Amino acid sequence: MVKATTPSTATIIFAYLVVYIVWGSTFFFIEKSLHAFPPFVLGSIRFIIAGTLLMGYCYFKGYKIFIKSAVKDAAMVGFLLLFVDMAAIIWSEQYISSGIVSILSAATAIWFIILDKPKWKENFTSVPTLLGLILGFLGVFMLFAEQIFSPNAHSADNDNKLTAMIVLTLGTIGWTVGSLLSKYSKEKRDQKAAVENGPKAEAEDLNVMVKTAWQMVVAGTAFTTVALLNGEYARFDFSAVAIEYWGAMVYLALMGSILAFSCYIFLLQVRPATEVSTYAYVNPIVALILVHFFTNHEVTKMQIIGLAVVLFSVLLMNWNLYVNSELIKKYKRSRKIKKLRHMAPKSSIPRIVEVAEYGKTRLKKAKENNESEKKTTAKPEFDLDNPDGLGDQEL
Which residues of 331-367 are buried (b: 16+ CB within 10 A; e: fewer)? Predict the structure, then answer.
Protein backbone atom coordinates (compact mmCIF):
# COMPACT_ATOMS: atom_id res chain seq x y z
CA MET A 1 0.00 0.00 0.00
CA VAL A 2 1.43 3.37 -1.05
CA LYS A 3 1.02 6.11 1.52
CA ALA A 4 -0.03 9.57 0.38
CA THR A 5 2.87 11.97 0.71
CA THR A 6 2.41 15.34 2.37
CA PRO A 7 3.48 18.17 0.05
CA SER A 8 6.51 20.12 1.19
CA THR A 9 6.24 23.66 2.54
CA ALA A 10 8.18 24.90 -0.47
CA THR A 11 5.64 23.33 -2.85
CA ILE A 12 2.72 24.95 -1.02
CA ILE A 13 4.44 28.34 -0.97
CA PHE A 14 5.17 28.06 -4.70
CA ALA A 15 1.51 27.23 -5.41
CA TYR A 16 0.36 30.24 -3.40
CA LEU A 17 2.79 32.53 -5.20
CA VAL A 18 1.47 31.31 -8.55
CA VAL A 19 -2.17 31.83 -7.56
CA TYR A 20 -1.45 35.21 -5.97
CA ILE A 21 0.89 36.67 -8.57
CA VAL A 22 0.00 34.94 -11.84
CA TRP A 23 -3.75 35.35 -11.48
CA GLY A 24 -3.25 38.94 -10.35
CA SER A 25 -1.01 39.63 -13.35
CA THR A 26 -3.47 38.29 -15.94
CA PHE A 27 -5.35 41.61 -15.88
CA PHE A 28 -2.12 43.38 -16.91
CA PHE A 29 -1.27 40.84 -19.63
CA ILE A 30 -4.78 41.09 -21.10
CA GLU A 31 -4.30 44.85 -21.38
CA LYS A 32 -0.88 44.29 -22.98
CA SER A 33 -2.23 41.72 -25.45
CA LEU A 34 -4.96 44.12 -26.58
CA HIS A 35 -2.25 46.23 -28.23
CA ALA A 36 -2.04 43.55 -30.92
CA PHE A 37 -5.13 41.32 -30.65
CA PRO A 38 -8.78 42.33 -31.09
CA PRO A 39 -10.78 41.42 -27.93
CA PHE A 40 -12.67 38.39 -29.23
CA VAL A 41 -9.68 37.06 -31.16
CA LEU A 42 -7.71 37.32 -27.93
CA GLY A 43 -10.30 35.25 -26.05
CA SER A 44 -10.60 32.80 -28.92
CA ILE A 45 -6.88 32.00 -29.19
CA ARG A 46 -6.33 31.96 -25.42
CA PHE A 47 -9.09 29.46 -24.61
CA ILE A 48 -8.60 27.28 -27.68
CA ILE A 49 -4.94 26.80 -26.68
CA ALA A 50 -5.71 26.31 -22.97
CA GLY A 51 -8.78 24.11 -23.53
CA THR A 52 -7.04 21.86 -26.06
CA LEU A 53 -3.95 21.37 -23.90
CA LEU A 54 -5.95 20.73 -20.72
CA MET A 55 -8.31 18.29 -22.45
CA GLY A 56 -5.33 16.46 -23.93
CA TYR A 57 -3.72 16.24 -20.50
CA CYS A 58 -6.93 14.81 -19.00
CA TYR A 59 -7.20 12.26 -21.82
CA PHE A 60 -3.65 11.00 -21.33
CA LYS A 61 -4.18 10.86 -17.57
CA GLY A 62 -7.05 8.47 -18.22
CA TYR A 63 -9.84 10.65 -16.86
CA LYS A 64 -13.33 10.01 -18.16
CA ILE A 65 -13.99 12.73 -20.74
CA PHE A 66 -17.73 12.61 -21.38
CA ILE A 67 -20.81 12.31 -19.19
CA LYS A 68 -23.77 13.96 -20.87
CA SER A 69 -25.28 15.71 -17.84
CA ALA A 70 -21.90 16.86 -16.51
CA VAL A 71 -20.76 18.19 -19.91
CA LYS A 72 -24.09 20.01 -20.30
CA ASP A 73 -23.59 21.74 -16.95
CA ALA A 74 -19.93 22.49 -17.75
CA ALA A 75 -20.96 24.05 -21.08
CA MET A 76 -23.44 26.40 -19.42
CA VAL A 77 -20.99 27.32 -16.65
CA GLY A 78 -18.16 27.80 -19.15
CA PHE A 79 -20.34 30.08 -21.27
CA LEU A 80 -21.20 32.31 -18.30
CA LEU A 81 -17.86 32.24 -16.46
CA LEU A 82 -15.26 32.11 -19.19
CA PHE A 83 -17.14 33.72 -22.07
CA VAL A 84 -19.60 36.28 -20.66
CA ASP A 85 -17.42 37.44 -17.77
CA MET A 86 -14.08 37.15 -19.57
CA ALA A 87 -15.47 38.88 -22.68
CA ALA A 88 -16.61 41.73 -20.43
CA ILE A 89 -13.15 41.95 -18.85
CA ILE A 90 -11.27 41.86 -22.17
CA TRP A 91 -13.61 44.31 -23.93
CA SER A 92 -13.57 46.70 -20.95
CA GLU A 93 -9.78 46.82 -20.81
CA GLN A 94 -9.82 48.60 -24.18
CA TYR A 95 -11.09 51.68 -22.32
CA ILE A 96 -10.23 51.37 -18.61
CA SER A 97 -7.07 50.29 -16.82
CA SER A 98 -6.55 46.72 -15.72
CA GLY A 99 -6.32 48.05 -12.16
CA ILE A 100 -9.92 49.30 -12.16
CA VAL A 101 -11.01 46.05 -13.81
CA SER A 102 -9.37 44.01 -11.06
CA ILE A 103 -11.07 46.05 -8.32
CA LEU A 104 -14.53 45.73 -9.87
CA SER A 105 -13.92 42.01 -10.38
CA ALA A 106 -13.11 41.65 -6.67
CA ALA A 107 -16.55 43.08 -5.90
CA THR A 108 -18.18 39.95 -7.36
CA ALA A 109 -18.90 38.84 -3.77
CA ILE A 110 -21.70 41.43 -3.72
CA TRP A 111 -23.67 39.53 -6.35
CA PHE A 112 -23.16 36.20 -4.60
CA ILE A 113 -24.90 37.65 -1.54
CA ILE A 114 -27.76 39.10 -3.58
CA LEU A 115 -28.36 36.26 -6.06
CA ASP A 116 -27.82 33.18 -3.87
CA LYS A 117 -31.53 32.82 -2.97
CA PRO A 118 -31.25 29.63 -0.84
CA LYS A 119 -28.88 31.56 1.46
CA TRP A 120 -30.89 34.78 1.69
CA LYS A 121 -32.04 34.08 5.26
CA GLU A 122 -28.49 33.36 6.40
CA ASN A 123 -26.96 36.28 4.51
CA PHE A 124 -29.50 38.99 5.29
CA THR A 125 -29.67 38.21 9.00
CA SER A 126 -25.90 38.50 9.42
CA VAL A 127 -24.70 41.94 10.52
CA PRO A 128 -21.14 41.53 9.10
CA THR A 129 -22.57 40.36 5.77
CA LEU A 130 -24.96 43.33 5.53
CA LEU A 131 -22.21 45.78 6.44
CA GLY A 132 -19.96 44.17 3.84
CA LEU A 133 -22.70 44.47 1.23
CA ILE A 134 -23.15 48.19 1.94
CA LEU A 135 -19.39 48.82 1.88
CA GLY A 136 -19.05 46.81 -1.32
CA PHE A 137 -21.57 49.01 -3.12
CA LEU A 138 -19.85 52.08 -1.67
CA GLY A 139 -16.48 50.94 -3.05
CA VAL A 140 -17.96 50.31 -6.50
CA PHE A 141 -19.75 53.67 -6.42
CA MET A 142 -16.45 55.42 -5.61
CA LEU A 143 -14.92 54.03 -8.80
CA PHE A 144 -17.92 55.09 -10.87
CA ALA A 145 -18.02 58.50 -9.18
CA GLU A 146 -14.39 59.14 -10.15
CA GLN A 147 -15.43 58.91 -13.81
CA ILE A 148 -18.82 60.66 -13.47
CA PHE A 149 -17.47 63.70 -11.61
CA SER A 150 -14.10 63.96 -13.34
CA PRO A 151 -13.21 67.19 -15.26
CA ASN A 152 -13.67 65.29 -18.55
CA ALA A 153 -17.01 63.78 -17.51
CA HIS A 154 -18.76 64.69 -20.75
CA SER A 155 -16.04 63.64 -23.18
CA ALA A 156 -16.43 60.68 -25.53
CA ASP A 157 -13.48 58.95 -23.89
CA ASN A 158 -15.10 59.22 -20.48
CA ASP A 159 -18.40 57.87 -21.88
CA ASN A 160 -16.51 54.83 -23.15
CA LYS A 161 -14.99 54.34 -19.69
CA LEU A 162 -18.40 54.44 -18.01
CA THR A 163 -19.84 52.04 -20.58
CA ALA A 164 -16.90 49.68 -20.01
CA MET A 165 -17.45 49.74 -16.24
CA ILE A 166 -21.15 48.96 -16.69
CA VAL A 167 -20.33 46.10 -19.09
CA LEU A 168 -17.76 44.78 -16.61
CA THR A 169 -20.31 44.88 -13.78
CA LEU A 170 -22.75 42.88 -15.92
CA GLY A 171 -19.93 40.43 -16.61
CA THR A 172 -19.36 39.89 -12.88
CA ILE A 173 -23.08 39.13 -12.53
CA GLY A 174 -22.68 36.54 -15.30
CA TRP A 175 -19.76 34.99 -13.36
CA THR A 176 -21.92 34.81 -10.23
CA VAL A 177 -24.86 33.21 -12.03
CA GLY A 178 -22.53 30.65 -13.63
CA SER A 179 -20.92 29.83 -10.29
CA LEU A 180 -24.30 29.35 -8.61
CA LEU A 181 -25.55 27.20 -11.49
CA SER A 182 -22.47 25.03 -11.13
CA LYS A 183 -23.08 24.67 -7.40
CA TYR A 184 -26.80 23.89 -7.45
CA SER A 185 -26.92 21.80 -10.62
CA LYS A 186 -24.51 19.34 -8.98
CA GLU A 187 -26.72 19.22 -5.88
CA LYS A 188 -29.81 18.51 -8.01
CA ARG A 189 -28.07 15.69 -9.86
CA ASP A 190 -26.96 14.21 -6.53
CA GLN A 191 -30.52 14.40 -5.18
CA LYS A 192 -31.86 12.67 -8.28
CA ALA A 193 -29.24 9.93 -7.94
CA ALA A 194 -30.16 9.50 -4.27
CA VAL A 195 -33.84 8.99 -5.17
CA GLU A 196 -33.01 6.46 -7.88
CA ASN A 197 -30.13 4.57 -6.25
CA GLY A 198 -30.35 5.13 -2.51
CA PRO A 199 -29.74 7.96 -0.02
CA LYS A 200 -25.95 7.71 -0.13
CA ALA A 201 -25.67 7.63 -3.92
CA GLU A 202 -24.13 10.55 -5.81
CA ALA A 203 -24.50 11.44 -9.47
CA GLU A 204 -21.66 10.30 -11.71
CA ASP A 205 -19.40 13.25 -12.31
CA LEU A 206 -16.29 14.26 -14.21
CA ASN A 207 -12.94 15.20 -12.70
CA VAL A 208 -12.73 18.93 -12.01
CA MET A 209 -9.89 19.29 -14.54
CA VAL A 210 -12.05 17.70 -17.24
CA LYS A 211 -14.98 20.00 -16.46
CA THR A 212 -12.67 23.01 -16.63
CA ALA A 213 -11.32 21.80 -19.98
CA TRP A 214 -14.90 21.61 -21.31
CA GLN A 215 -15.59 25.11 -19.99
CA MET A 216 -12.51 26.42 -21.81
CA VAL A 217 -13.47 24.63 -25.03
CA VAL A 218 -16.98 26.13 -24.88
CA ALA A 219 -15.58 29.60 -24.15
CA GLY A 220 -13.04 29.28 -26.97
CA THR A 221 -15.80 28.23 -29.38
CA ALA A 222 -18.01 31.16 -28.32
CA PHE A 223 -15.17 33.68 -28.67
CA THR A 224 -14.27 32.24 -32.08
CA THR A 225 -17.88 32.42 -33.29
CA VAL A 226 -18.21 36.10 -32.30
CA ALA A 227 -14.80 36.97 -33.76
CA LEU A 228 -15.82 35.40 -37.07
CA LEU A 229 -19.25 37.05 -37.14
CA ASN A 230 -18.07 40.57 -36.23
CA GLY A 231 -15.19 40.48 -38.71
CA GLU A 232 -12.31 40.52 -36.21
CA TYR A 233 -10.69 37.43 -37.71
CA ALA A 234 -11.18 38.76 -41.24
CA ARG A 235 -9.28 41.93 -40.34
CA PHE A 236 -6.67 40.24 -38.16
CA ASP A 237 -3.14 39.70 -39.51
CA PHE A 238 -1.30 37.00 -37.56
CA SER A 239 2.05 37.97 -39.08
CA ALA A 240 1.73 41.56 -37.87
CA VAL A 241 1.75 40.55 -34.19
CA ALA A 242 5.10 41.24 -32.50
CA ILE A 243 6.76 38.45 -30.52
CA GLU A 244 6.21 40.22 -27.17
CA TYR A 245 2.44 40.12 -27.67
CA TRP A 246 2.54 36.44 -28.63
CA GLY A 247 4.48 36.00 -25.41
CA ALA A 248 1.68 37.73 -23.49
CA MET A 249 -0.85 35.43 -25.18
CA VAL A 250 1.12 32.31 -24.29
CA TYR A 251 1.44 33.58 -20.72
CA LEU A 252 -2.34 33.98 -20.45
CA ALA A 253 -3.03 30.54 -21.88
CA LEU A 254 -0.35 28.51 -20.12
CA MET A 255 0.36 30.42 -16.91
CA GLY A 256 -3.00 32.05 -16.27
CA SER A 257 -5.43 29.40 -17.48
CA ILE A 258 -3.53 26.16 -16.82
CA LEU A 259 -0.71 26.56 -14.27
CA ALA A 260 -2.51 28.96 -11.92
CA PHE A 261 -5.71 26.94 -12.05
CA SER A 262 -3.83 23.69 -11.39
CA CYS A 263 -2.12 25.29 -8.38
CA TYR A 264 -5.51 26.51 -7.16
CA ILE A 265 -6.99 23.00 -7.33
CA PHE A 266 -3.89 21.59 -5.62
CA LEU A 267 -4.16 24.10 -2.76
CA LEU A 268 -7.85 23.31 -2.24
CA GLN A 269 -6.85 19.68 -1.72
CA VAL A 270 -4.09 20.35 0.85
CA ARG A 271 -5.07 23.63 2.55
CA PRO A 272 -8.31 25.04 4.06
CA ALA A 273 -10.59 26.66 1.46
CA THR A 274 -10.86 29.85 3.52
CA GLU A 275 -7.08 30.20 3.44
CA VAL A 276 -6.92 29.57 -0.31
CA SER A 277 -9.65 32.17 -0.92
CA THR A 278 -7.23 34.90 0.20
CA TYR A 279 -6.11 35.14 -3.44
CA ALA A 280 -9.15 37.40 -3.92
CA TYR A 281 -7.48 40.01 -1.68
CA VAL A 282 -4.02 39.77 -3.25
CA ASN A 283 -4.89 39.69 -6.98
CA PRO A 284 -6.18 43.31 -7.22
CA ILE A 285 -3.13 44.57 -5.32
CA VAL A 286 -0.80 42.78 -7.76
CA ALA A 287 -2.81 44.23 -10.66
CA LEU A 288 -2.56 47.80 -9.33
CA ILE A 289 1.19 47.47 -8.75
CA LEU A 290 1.71 46.33 -12.35
CA VAL A 291 -0.47 49.16 -13.65
CA HIS A 292 1.51 51.72 -11.66
CA PHE A 293 4.95 50.57 -12.79
CA PHE A 294 4.38 49.20 -16.29
CA THR A 295 1.55 51.21 -17.91
CA ASN A 296 0.73 54.85 -18.62
CA HIS A 297 -2.41 54.71 -16.47
CA GLU A 298 -2.49 56.73 -13.29
CA VAL A 299 -3.32 54.88 -10.07
CA THR A 300 -5.35 57.52 -8.22
CA LYS A 301 -6.02 57.93 -4.51
CA MET A 302 -9.71 57.23 -5.18
CA GLN A 303 -8.82 53.89 -6.78
CA ILE A 304 -6.63 52.90 -3.82
CA ILE A 305 -9.36 53.89 -1.34
CA GLY A 306 -11.96 52.10 -3.45
CA LEU A 307 -9.79 48.98 -3.46
CA ALA A 308 -9.41 49.11 0.33
CA VAL A 309 -13.16 49.54 0.81
CA VAL A 310 -14.01 46.69 -1.59
CA LEU A 311 -11.50 44.29 -0.03
CA PHE A 312 -12.73 45.11 3.48
CA SER A 313 -16.30 44.53 2.30
CA VAL A 314 -15.30 41.13 0.92
CA LEU A 315 -13.74 40.30 4.29
CA LEU A 316 -16.98 41.21 6.08
CA MET A 317 -19.16 39.29 3.62
CA ASN A 318 -17.03 36.19 4.28
CA TRP A 319 -16.74 36.88 8.01
CA ASN A 320 -18.90 33.98 9.18
CA LEU A 321 -16.99 31.60 6.92
CA TYR A 322 -13.64 32.71 8.31
CA VAL A 323 -14.77 32.68 11.95
CA ASN A 324 -15.94 29.08 11.63
CA SER A 325 -12.87 27.93 9.70
CA GLU A 326 -10.47 25.30 11.02
CA LEU A 327 -7.64 27.84 11.12
CA ILE A 328 -9.55 30.13 13.47
CA LYS A 329 -10.55 27.19 15.66
CA LYS A 330 -6.90 26.15 16.00
CA TYR A 331 -5.91 29.72 16.79
CA LYS A 332 -8.61 29.99 19.47
CA ARG A 333 -7.47 26.69 20.98
CA SER A 334 -3.86 27.85 21.15
CA ARG A 335 -4.99 31.09 22.80
CA LYS A 336 -7.04 29.13 25.31
CA ILE A 337 -4.05 26.94 26.19
CA LYS A 338 -1.86 30.02 26.55
CA LYS A 339 -4.44 31.62 28.84
CA LEU A 340 -4.65 28.47 30.97
CA ARG A 341 -0.89 28.46 31.34
CA HIS A 342 -1.03 31.99 32.75
CA MET A 343 -4.06 31.36 34.95
CA ALA A 344 -2.94 28.01 36.42
CA PRO A 345 -0.96 27.77 39.69
CA LYS A 346 2.75 28.18 39.12
CA SER A 347 3.29 24.51 39.95
CA SER A 348 0.89 23.51 37.13
CA ILE A 349 2.49 25.45 34.29
CA PRO A 350 5.18 22.92 33.33
CA ARG A 351 2.56 20.16 33.26
CA ILE A 352 0.30 22.15 30.92
CA VAL A 353 3.23 22.98 28.67
CA GLU A 354 4.35 19.36 28.51
CA VAL A 355 0.91 17.87 27.81
CA ALA A 356 -0.20 20.54 25.35
CA GLU A 357 2.94 21.08 23.36
CA TYR A 358 5.88 18.82 23.98
CA GLY A 359 4.60 15.30 24.66
CA LYS A 360 6.00 12.43 26.59
CA THR A 361 9.67 12.93 25.71
CA ARG A 362 9.85 16.46 27.05
CA LEU A 363 7.75 15.44 30.03
CA LYS A 364 10.26 12.77 30.96
CA LYS A 365 13.14 15.19 30.56
CA ALA A 366 11.44 17.77 32.77
CA LYS A 367 10.84 15.11 35.42
CA GLU A 368 14.52 14.19 35.42
CA ASN A 369 15.45 17.84 35.78
CA ASN A 370 13.05 18.20 38.68
CA GLU A 371 14.56 15.21 40.49
CA SER A 372 18.05 16.63 40.14
CA GLU A 373 16.86 19.96 41.57
CA LYS A 374 15.45 18.18 44.64
CA LYS A 375 18.94 16.99 45.49
CA THR A 376 20.37 20.52 45.49
CA THR A 377 17.67 22.43 47.36
CA ALA A 378 15.66 21.95 50.54
CA LYS A 379 12.62 23.68 49.03
CA PRO A 380 9.95 21.05 48.14
CA GLU A 381 8.84 20.82 44.50
CA PHE A 382 5.71 19.41 42.86
CA ASP A 383 5.46 15.99 41.26
CA LEU A 384 5.03 16.27 37.45
CA ASP A 385 3.04 13.05 37.42
CA ASN A 386 0.45 14.41 39.85
CA PRO A 387 0.53 18.23 40.07
CA ASP A 388 -1.88 19.78 42.55
CA GLY A 389 -5.06 21.18 41.03
CA LEU A 390 -4.81 19.51 37.59
CA GLY A 391 -6.34 16.07 38.04
CA ASP A 392 -8.27 15.05 34.91
CA GLN A 393 -8.78 18.66 33.76
CA GLU A 394 -9.01 19.04 29.97
CA LEU A 395 -6.63 21.55 28.45
Answer: eeeeeeeeebbeebeeebebbbebbbeeeeeebeebe
Which pLDDT score is estimated for 32? Answer: 96
218 in Cβ contact with 60 (< 8 Å): no
Of 138, 133, 95, residue with least CA distance to 115: 133
Q: How many residues does the chain have?
A: 395
Give the integer Cα–Cα distance in Å for 318 and 280.
11
Q: Are 199 and 185 in contact (CB under 8 A)?
A: no
* Residue 336 identity: K
The C-alpha R_g of the chain, in whole angstroms, comes to 27
Specify the pLDDT at position 146.
Answer: 87
What is the pTM assigned to this prediction?
0.79
Long-range Cβ contact pairs of 211-214 (< 8 A, separation 24 or more): 211/70, 211/73, 211/74, 211/77, 212/54, 212/74, 212/261, 213/51, 213/54, 213/55, 213/57, 213/58, 214/51, 214/55, 214/71, 214/74, 214/75, 214/78
Q: How far, in Å, CA of 20 to CA of 284, rounded?
A: 9
**What percent of the chain has pLDDT above 90?**
56
CB contact at 8 A, 86 and 170: no
Asked if the model's pLDDT at residue 180 lies above 80, the reply is yes
pLDDT of the residue at 278:
87
**The three-state (H, E, C) secondary structure of the chain, written as one string:** CCCCCCCCHHHHHHHHHHHHHHHHHHHHHHHHHCCCCCHHHHHHHHHHHHHHHHHHHHHHCCCCCCCHHHHHHHHHHHHHHHHHHHHHHHHHCCCCCHHHHHHHHHCCHHHHHHHCHHHHHHHCCCHHHHHHHHHHHHHHHHHHHHHHCCCCCCCHHHHHHHHHHHHHHHHHHHHHHHHHHHHHHHHHHHHHHHHHHCCCCCCCCCCHHHHHHHHHHHHHHHHHHHHHHCCHHHHCCHHHCCHHHHHHHHHHHHHHHHHHHHHHHHHHHHCCHHHHCCHHHHHHHHHHHHHHHHCCCCCCHHHHHHHHHHHHHHHHHCHHHHHCCHHHHHHHHHHHHHHHHHHCCHHHHHHHHHHHHHHHHHHHHHHHHHHHHHHHCCCCCCCCCCCCCCCCCCC
